[in-house]
């Protein structure tokens, strides 16, 4: 083994994001959150001819649904040989469909709203997911395992350790705060729909800062079901 190979191997071994550790998975989550918004926005323009918000957070252009989906597919399938295309495709179809269904169910149970429905889709499955989008998950899984993840993993591991660790913790804190504020803003809106008045200064802040018009602009497809 020559000196260049030894240096390269040592660099990989010292990477803060080697393998599937917390740091690697967080960056997969973060990139998935952002990339999902971009892809869905483009799809919306293509399908509906309109440009509208596809984020799930009030402060940043991120959608954790895609981030968690990317992590889930990574954990389940990146160690599966790309030669097993049928296993990856149908596995991602199933997991993607179940994941989408559970996300919709959780949103309805927690906030009394839904952001998508396939009730008028002949390929819809219990209104919360669709066979067509399950196929999309399968295709995405093949692309992810065979092409995207290997290159992305290599790029993440090239981030300098100190920068990578510090930036990861910073982004974790920011996204956690964003998710907490976003969740409470939507929860407080559900209370307003039920006629629950503001009981303290925090409620008043959310009622003013994240009123119905603001949330409508952020979540144009979010519809109350109760």
Low-confidence parts, pLDDT < 50 over ≥5 residues? none
Helix tally equals 8
Strand content: under 5%
> What's the number of extended β-strand segments?
4
How many domains is the backbone divided into? 1
Global mean pLDDT: 91
Rg for CA atoms? 20 Å
**Span between termini:** 66 Å
In order across it, which strands form the biggest sheet? Answer: 1-4
Helix-and-strand structural type = mainly alpha
Q: What does the largest sheet look like? A: 2 strands, antiparallel
- Give the % helix: 55-70%
The quaternary structure here is single chain
Could you say which overall geometry the principal axes of the C-alpha atoms support?
globular
Following the backbone from N to C, one meets helices and strands in this order, namely HHHHEEEHHHHE
Features:
single chain; 226 residues; mainly alpha; 8 helices; 69% helix; globular
Structure description:
The protein has 226 residues and is mostly helical. The chain has one domain (3-224). The protein is built from 8 helices and 4 strands. The protein has helices spanning 3-13, 22-48, 64-77, 85-111, 131-157, 161-193, 201-209, 212-218, and strands at 113-114, 124-125, 129-130, 223-224. Strand 2 and strand 3 form a beta hairpin. The chain is globular, with a radius of gyration of 20 Å. The termini are far apart.
